[in-house]
Amino acid sequence: MVKFNNIAALTALVASASAQTYQRLGGCPKLGCVLPPDQSEFLPGQLFDLRVEVHAPVNGSEAAHDGKPDEQFKVTIAKGSDAPRDFSTAFGIKDPELEKWNFTWYEDLYAEDAKKPSLVNVASKAYRKLALYEPGTYTVTLEYYSGEKTTATWTVRELVQDKKAKNVVLFIGDGMTTNMITAARLLGHQAINGKYQTKLKLDEFPIIGHQMTHSLDSYITDSANSASALYTGHKSTVNAMGVYVDSSKSPFDDPKVETIVEIFRRVRRGAWGAVSTAMMSDATPAALTGHSRDRYQYGALIDQALNGMTNYSWTSQNGPDVFFGGGADQFVPNSASYQGKDYYAEFAKKNYSISTNKTSLLALGNKEKALGIFCQSHMPVWLDRNVYKDNLKAFKNHPNGSKDPALDLPGLTDMTVKAVEILANRGGDKGFFLMSEAASIDKQMHTLDYDRALGDLLELDQAVRATTDKLKELGILEDTLVLITADHGHGFDVWGSADTKYLSEQQDNRGKRRAVGVYHESGQSQYTKPVDGVNYGTGASFPVNWEPRYAIAAGFGAMPDHREDYKVHKSAPRTPASKIGSEYYAESKDSVNGFLVNGTLPTSEGQGVHSLTDVAVYARGPCQDTFSGTYNNIDIFYKIANCLGLGKSDAGNGEDCPAKN
Ligand SMILES: *[C@@H]1O[C@H](CO)[C@@H](O)[C@H](O)[C@H]1NC(C)=O
Ligand SMILES: *[C@@H]1O[C@H](CO)[C@@H](O)[C@H](O)[C@H]1NC(C)=O
Ligand SMILES: *[C@@H]1O[C@H](CO)[C@@H](O)[C@H](O)[C@H]1NC(C)=O
Ligand SMILES: *[C@@H]1O[C@H](CO)[C@@H](O)[C@H](O)[C@H]1NC(C)=O
Ligand SMILES: *[C@@H]1O[C@H](CO)[C@@H](O)[C@H](O)[C@H]1NC(C)=O
Ligand SMILES: *[C@@H]1O[C@H](CO)[C@@H](O)[C@H](O)[C@H]1NC(C)=O
Ligand SMILES: *[C@@H]1O[C@H](CO)[C@@H](O)[C@H](O)[C@H]1NC(C)=O
């Protein structure tokens, strides 16, 4: 078995050497594709689809078989060393219909420059809504072109049905790295002679681990497939969630995998909720229930959150008990909402209470299912909501879809604490699952707006503190697994302080850089030093001064051309670069007195991008010890599922949930 695997890996390596920037299909180095691919793992009883494809490249370097895909391919599955069985027979299903299509792809940048895509004809079948209940290894074999084989070894993980935690609160600091946490601590907490007098709530967590964020087919991930890995235990491809990406055109027919929320509802029948400072259709909240290879299908993803899968028979998560965040774009009836429908009304029809501002959110009772949509697009960040409040008036983001500004906005802490109250009440003995996302750590790091990103990180820390206090008050802290992690990072760090006054007054680029104080010239954090006449009323654990003369000197490995003066962007979130023709250049109105930094990215990128780094996992509560060490992002799913005891040894009676009020 081991020997066989090694040979398979070697073949894969040779075959895929020519496709790196672009791939014919991720997870499919040969002309036969099995999705879920080799190395896939499953929770016992987790629902999934299988898609197999046979490719016949018409032209390009792989051209073969006269461009005619083998339609007589065979699929078998074998458990351990048992004899292989026909796949449909083994699952007791009717053999699926043959599907055929074609697609094109560029083999590399030369082919793209020459506008010569390679054309591939495909024959395929999809086997839907399957589950494996017995732990162990399985070998799925696709045989095609008389004798060629693609083999996938699947592992069904151990069966853990013992419930150790009743509730789970999973915080995701989108894009949050250890370096950012360190910088946020420097801004929000005072140190004397190198010793912090107060610390972050995160710093009190007993267990810290490290997770690797790589995608199925690329080592840099985006937020869709990394969220999907955290929620499903399956790796996927950039822009995909809850599915493996196939080569067909439809973004809705790709082979699905069941998510933690769907399994939790199916097995435990508890309550679930999502809170985010992003649009609720954005990748991190949407991936809890979304099954699409295209994260930009915003309207459909909101429909999937409320109504589940409508194209295929699938398990039902019955809609969220709590759904709080931004993204009125998909709720107001318009071209961005699913089929132009009014999703405030669709939720109301299902008996949700609807709030659209902080006042009505805080006034909510704890009995009803609750939808809270507070603005269009992503929510304005903590710094604009709490320090530079006048900026809110410039947003055209009212939750009713008009160009008026949304001024009565809750923060992550308000939304998360309210969500916990409702979920604890609605989940009762069955428990609850809550995901709460600090989305703009990522969004503001993308635009190099360090202050806004770190403000939102401090708000996340505040939300964690308030949530653990609330769980304690409700008497359920010890039954609740609380996790804080990220989906990926950015190459951000701080290397000193910058004398912003000296910097802005020097005349040339090189002279300005003398303002950056490194090593002993970095000095102490000036963000925690009180200044006469400056008081934002934002309380402990936040900077007392956002405009110190000596600011942090920070930046990125991945960035567009931009100008740097290290000052807080008081009047609006930052735009570091803007497009002239088809390329990005330093934005002429940004940091005008700063020095020019030339970018490290393609000139088509106007923002920073995600980076390779592992990210931290903080854990507290039942099963906390299982989160120490270094592991893959998919392991978070298995650790949570095992702590909740979500594995199943058989289909049991009736796998779908009754509707709930
Ligand atoms: C690809 O498939 C479409 C529809 O199935 C067909 O109309 C088209 O001619 C095909 N393209 C090529 C280049 O074979
Ligand atoms: C392959 O064939 C298609 C359809 O005829 C064509 O558009 C494309 O340029 C061809 N690509 C190559 C690499 O020859
Ligand atoms: C599948 O479902 C999505 C929404 O979830 C919808 O937009 C799409 O049109 C459906 N596709 C088919 C082929 O029914
Ligand atoms: C909404 O609530 C009413 C009154 O309790 C109930 O009759 C109805 O079935 C509920 N509708 C849904 C979709 O849950
Ligand atoms: C908040 O929402 C409630 C109910 O939707 C509405 O009556 C009230 O006017 C709103 N308040 C503000 C300040 O917009
Ligand atoms: C949206 O709300 C604003 C502020 O309350 C109000 O002025 C406007 O008339 C409303 N627009 C719509 C379309 O309801
Ligand atoms: C550096 O950035 C500036 C401003 O965006 C741009 O005009 C210039 O071409 C860049 N230089 C190089 C070498 O890329």
Bound molecules: 2-acetamido-2-deoxy-beta-D-glucopyranose
Tally of individual domains:
3
Amino- and carboxy-terminal Cα gap: 51 Å
Any guess at the CATH architecture of the largest domain? 3-Layer(aba) Sandwich
Q: Summarize the amount of helix as a percent range.
A: 10-25%
Shape: globular
In DSSP terms, counting alpha (H) and pi (I) runs of 4 or more, how many helices? 17
Describe the structure.
The structure is a single chain. Helix 4 (178-188) packs across helix 14 (450-473) and helix 12 (412-427) runs parallel beside helix 14. 23% of the residues lie in helices and 23% in strands. The strands form 7 sheets. Strands 16-17-15-14-18-10-19-27-13-28 form a 10-stranded mixed sheet, sandwiched between helices. The chain has 17 helices and 28 strands. Residues 1-17 have low confidence and may be disordered. A hairpin with a 2-residue loop joins strand 11 and strand 12 (195-196). The chain has 661 residues and is an alpha/beta fold. The chain binds 2-acetamido-2-deoxy-beta-D-glucopyranose (7 copies). One 2-acetamido-2-deoxy-beta-D-glucopyranose (NAG) is lined by residues 350-351, 659, 661.
